[in-house]
Amino acid sequence: PDARDFDDAVHVERRGSGYRLLVSIADVSAYVRPGSALDRDALRRGCSVYFPAGVFSMLPARLSEELCTLAPGRDRAAVTVELDLDSKGVVKAARFLRSLIRSAARLTYREVQEILDGERDCEKAKQHGERLAVMAECAGLMLKCLHGRGALDLDLPEVDIHLGEDGAPKEVRPAPRYFSQRIVEVFMIAANEAVARALGEAGAPAVYRVHPSPDPEKMEVFAKLAENLGAPVSYDRKIRPSPKRLSGYLQSLEGRPVKEIVSQLLLRSLMQARYSENCEGHYGLASSAYLHFTSPIRRYPDLAVHRQLIALIEGDAGNWPHREGEVTKVAELCSRSERMALAAERTTASLYRAAYMRERLGDTFEGVVAAVFDFGVFVRMFPSGVEGLVHISQMQDDYYKFQEDHLALVGRRTGKAYRMGTRCQVRVESVQLSQARVDLSFIGP
User: Fold this and answer.
1) For residue 167, what is the DSSP state?
2) Could you report the per-residue pLDDT of 328-348, keeping only the tens digit for each?
3) Between 20 and 30 A from 22 (CA), which of 3, 249, 363, 430?
4) What is the number of other CB atoms lying within 10 angstroms of the CB of residue 105?
5) pTM flag (> 0.90)
């Protein structure tokens, strides 16, 4: 609801037994020329950084919130990917063009979900309900294809932080997760892959998004932990699992409480995605060619990809705006910028969550053990989703010893165990804002 920059607009219509999908992305390259002061500053920043109190944009607000954003009812320059899909949601053909579009509506994920569920009877529902239903139908088929080829579904919970007028955290709660979000995600993945394939076939230097295969040693540790949690892996541990086998294993845990825990452990075991001048594939998406094309307002690699694609569209292949050496530089700088932005966002979010709990000293909460270490356990509290530490020095009902293979703290006398997923009750004892740390103690059974 509070978003100001809109990179993308989508449209789906039935074509025979299949579908025609249009993904239009803001043409930032029409305003930001290679080598200009704007361009140099955008590359220095690498990406926009999002905090609860606002955003540090990669581009000036005049561009990111006005001229480039695909605002409803306004003519805007865009680059459009047109995809033909069959009755099973498989992409059969792709076309690329520069375009001038006028967005019909700006809809939030919640609005779309309520329209799809028949819970919202309003003018937007009357105007767009039928088209949204076709989108959902098409996206559902595309998701089946995505999961069928082995894309990993690590849909872990996130936390929303809402600030009051004084800038202090007023509410912290788990972020809702809607199917409407999956609609946009799967459309963006399809567009990114189509552009990656087109640039690769044309021999264009490009900034690819790569996700390497996991380290065998880390995967063996993951397999042991999953087995100790009562969810043994269903693939041969002697062989590095393909995305499809790993995805099948996760799907076999559907409906079990242990799935979220296993998904968290798996996420920690996988390699970090990065940018590269080489098309090395994306393990998590089970994709042989992938890049970022869909968010040029907030990510520089997407802007660089747009310039290369436009050269291809306009028949200027070979005269690429970004040469090989330059693409390598962009990939390195933007990988570094992304890591810095993520660290800043996580640190800031932790500070806000700690500030929220500082107003709740002495309060008790239901929770679940989210992580276990030799020095104590982290507990995720309900309903906020904020995590705090119960230090082992606070666990005075027994002498607890850390069992690394089982990721558990086990009492020597009672045999009582705290492991990931254990339900518990905790009290907020103290908050150290300088360390963004929330200290808890166990109460009750």
Assistant:
1) S
2) 999 999 999 999 999 999 999
3) 3
4) 15
5) yes
